[in-house]
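[Meeting: bench + compute handoff]

Bench side (C.D.) handed over the final construct sequence. Compute side (W.E.) agreed to return the predicted structure before the next meeting so the bench team could plan truncations. Sequence as handed over:
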Amino acid sequence: MLWKKQQPVYRPSSDQILSPLPGPFRSALLSMYNGEPQLGSDGERHNLDAKVHISGEQGMWLHNLCRETKAKTTLEIGLAYGYSTVYFLASIHENGFGHHTAVDPIQTTFWHGIGLCQPRSLGMSDSFGFIEEQSVPALVHFADRGKTFEVIFIDGNHRFDDVLVDFTLASELCSMEGCIVLDDMWMPSICRAVAFIRSNRKDFEELKTPVANIAAFRRIGEDARQWNHYVEFCDPHDMPRTIQRLTPASLRRGAKAIARLMRL
């Protein structure tokens, strides 16, 4: 048997992925992707944690979504070093209008204010707003003021319950036909939250994306569920455990139940 030589997988460089962006925004992102120390709000330069970023493919998808939908108001939960903020601001710059808001309770205490410095260095401070607060009170305050957003990016606390609460509150702020995007689909907690949304939130439709690490939903209606509504949901991460629980005894019980139903 002859084995074909495996062809190397072509992966575009960050410079190629970001080439459609205007120069200053592309340079700011490349500086971070290349691991260069970044200026913090304390006036010092700080090293970055290489694991904390969104990929160029993810960022360009967000950027293109805002360009295509002509989003006027965008929101992100979790600012960190400001990668996603730069993509949002680039779309605002190119559209010629818009305002972006970021929520991060530990921006200055943990991230050294690096994310806050990005809009300033890009000359986009007038198009950027920041709230250093936990996501729950911040989202509630937005709702109290009647604020709505056309694109919402959830990338804050990654615990299952926190992600689901962020989505639930964000859904009240999402304009009709607006989009909510969740990051880090490689994590079981995020996959579980997304599985719930797919099964239970029919006021949102899932969008197909070329990026496996994000899930995106567009609001298509009002939440008209009854007070006791619940639809069981299945997380792909649970499948091996589900199969393991299918013992011979449980399979026999299932077969008997099906036989009884067929006799009805």
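W.E. noted at the follow-up: The beta strands are 38-39, 45-46, 73-77, 99-103, 128-131, 149-154, 174-183, 204-207, 214-219. C.D. will use this when planning the next construct.
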